[in-house]
Write a structure and sequence with these properties.
Strand order of the largest sheet: 3-4-10-7-5
Radius of gyration: 22 Å
Distance between the termini: 48 Å
Number of helices: 16
Shape: globular
Structural class: alpha+beta
Oligomer: single chain
Length: 440
Amino acid sequence: MFDPCQPADAQAPCGCGYGHHVNVSNTGPELFTWEFASDPYPAYAWLREHSPVHWTKLPSGVEAWLVTRYADARQALADQRLSKNPDHHAGDAQGKSRTGIPGERSANLMTHLLNIDPPDHTRLRRLVSKAFTPRRVAEFEPRVQELTDSLIDRFAPQGQADLIHDFAFPLPIYAICDLLGVPREDQDDFRDWAGMMIRHGGGPRGGVARSVKKIRGYLAELIHRKRGDLGDDLISDLIRASDHGEHLTENEAAAMCFVLLFAGFETTINLLGNGTYALLRNPDQRARLQNSIERGETELLDTGIEELLRYDGPVELATWRYATEPLVIGGQPIAVGDPVLVVLAAADRDPARFAAPDSLDLSRGDNQHLGYGHGIHYCLGAPLARLEGRTGLETLLRRLPDLELAADPADLRWRGGLIMRGLRDLPVRFTPARAGHPPV
């Protein structure tokens, strides 16, 4: 794996035009190994202490700044001098092709919320935000509960399951398909394509790119079909907006739907997987939550979801940013065109912001974590992800009260990849329960 550190006392020009250089020491932790993926938090603690804005080489070969302290991360996420547009990357064409979502450029899917700045970002976010209003999400809650129970019904009688493949993966896929307006008969195809993106996420980018191409072709066809048969779904809403002068091109509509699928389903997979794993590894906190659920209380579940997002959240690094002018983050000069990656996982365990940050406390107050970002690029689908996470965890603990880990934690593997953090599998066992869920 890649060692991001150069030889001791090596001089790396930062390119800022101020004559500054960056001292990069080889005494720091090794990043991006499989061991690091299993538990990156000690390495992040070292970086926060010794190199809080850290120039490193990523496994792709692209170099970037890692921002690890909470205050610096919050500043960077809201700083409009850090553009989301990859055209501002100072690297060569090959370097630019290694950032962002594999295959999105060749599939003509670049014009989405993760890649654009105001005013285009403002226009597109306004259009799609109608799908994630509190009212719209609340109306979707019965469907999420129905999906949750039907998935548990499939494995409850068996007394064992892989919670990633049997539960955390299909739940958000089917939910986002319903939201977009993908017909039920096509949703298993979407599940297969999404599965290919998950399986290939830490490997060659070509595997993901092939899935992206298939999804792009399907979305173009679906948008065309829906123009003649609009419904009560997000794709129909985007078509209506375009027809009423909002100037939404077909490529923009396809890219918007694609990024909601790509970003929306994996964050929820990881929230459910990481969250369940954290509860199983912290039995005292799990017992508190389970007792609260049995009493019909909701407060600990609400604060608990926020704590699980902070403690081991689904998004490890925020998506790419590029400096459009010289700036300083945490005392470190940043050059025009330099890529900047905000490490949400490191910021959310910063002891300067959170008391006992490495401890799970489901009743933690003042929990302004950065798990879904900050500023104008705050995750648009966060309300839906919270609903799915809350419903999924509550239902699992209520219906399978003696759920336990069925593997040695040392044998579990985390998916490779730069942005997301999630388990490949999560084997569990429990007392077999009948299908046909009890009343909520």
